[in-house]
Amino acid sequence: MRRLTTMSWIALALTALLLAGCGRRAPQLFGSVVEPPQPAADFILTDQHGQPFRLSDQRGRVVNLFFGYTHCPDVCPTTLALWRQVELKLGADAEKVRFVFISVDPERDTPERLQEHLALFSPRLIGLTGDPAQLEPIYAAYHVFHEKVPVPESALGYTVNHSSSVYVIDREGLWRMTYRFDANADDVVHDLRELLR
């Protein structure tokens, strides 16, 4: 009888631990999780409408950051098309998410150029640029690789090799995860909804 009672207590204790663990469940994310989450470096840049954009002003929303350029032939348009799919799948939740494209080619990516280019994908996309002195500390803070590559035989004159990850910042301003430019849209939607909870 005593043995049965002891086993019962052990079972109850294990059940209580499991239930307590369920209450503090960390979200299961498809992207690459930053553990522990890191404070996202703040910055101010100019958007495609010539207005200042401060990252810390976006608290309360989930922010997706991507570093690219408007003359990019592959990775950047793929990312912007992915964002459009994600935006549509999010429905009303898209209002709580920001999709922010930061130029690695400020020489050509003027606010006007960003406005024209991003409008091809979605009016909700935010394009940011600045002078190199503003941009370089931001690239460093987010570990963004960028390299200008001369292409003399091309009318463009050069391309830019650059990092291709999307950085996700949660509603408290913490860098929580990254995902690939060619991620599955449904997986991204799942992760963003988890961070919106």
Secondary structure category: alpha+beta
The CATH class label is: Alpha Beta
Mean pLDDT: 90
> So what's the oligomer here?
single chain
The number of helical elements comes to: 5
Unreliable parts: 6-24
Query: Helix amount, in percent?
Result: 25-40%
Instruction: State the shape.
Output: globular
Number of strands: 10
Cα(first) to Cα(last) distance is 47 Å
Radius of gyration: 21 Å
- Looking at CATH, the homologous superfamily is Glutaredoxin
Look up the CATH topology.
Glutaredoxin
- How much of the residues is beta strand, in percent? 25-35%
- Major sheet attributes: 8 strands, mixed
Summary tags:
alpha+beta, globular, 5 helices, eight-stranded mixed sheet, Glutaredoxin, 35% helix, 197 residues
SSE layout and pairing:
Elements: H1 2-23, E1 32-39, E2 44-47, E3 52-54, E4 62-68, H2 75-90, E5 97-103, H3 111-118, E6 126-129, H4 132-141, E7 146-151, E8 157-162, E9 165-169, E10 174-180, H5 185-196
Parallel strand pairs: 4-5, 5-6
Antiparallel strand pairs: 1-10, 2-3, 2-6, 4-9, 7-8, 9-10
Report on the architecture of this protein.
By secondary structure, the protein is of the alpha+beta class. The protein has a single domain (2-196), classed as Glutaredoxin, CATH 3.40.30. It contains 5 helices and 10 strands, in the order αββββαβαβαββββα. The strands form 2 sheets. It has an 8-stranded mixed β-sheet, sandwiched between helices. Strands 7-8 form a two-stranded antiparallel sheet. It is globular, with a radius of gyration of 21 Å. Mean pLDDT is 90; it is low at 6-24.
